[in-house]
Amino acid sequence: MKKDTRISESTSLKPINCIKCVHYYVTWDPAFPKGCRAFGFKTSEMPSTLVKRSSGHPCLKFESKL
What we know:
Layout: H1 6-10, E1 24-26, E2 34-36, E3 41-43, H2 47-55
Antiparallel strand pairs: 1-2, 2-3
């Protein structure tokens, strides 16, 4: 059975590592090389950082690849 890691990762005080998330992807756009499929955007910074700055909350869509 797959462990639900969304709650434990998203409520912790340490930053979320998007590279370990199933929704993270690398784009072909040099200006916006990182993307989040869950929220549907590309960015030049880690997507979780943008989500935190925009909403004031840690990313609630994080799902561990493992």
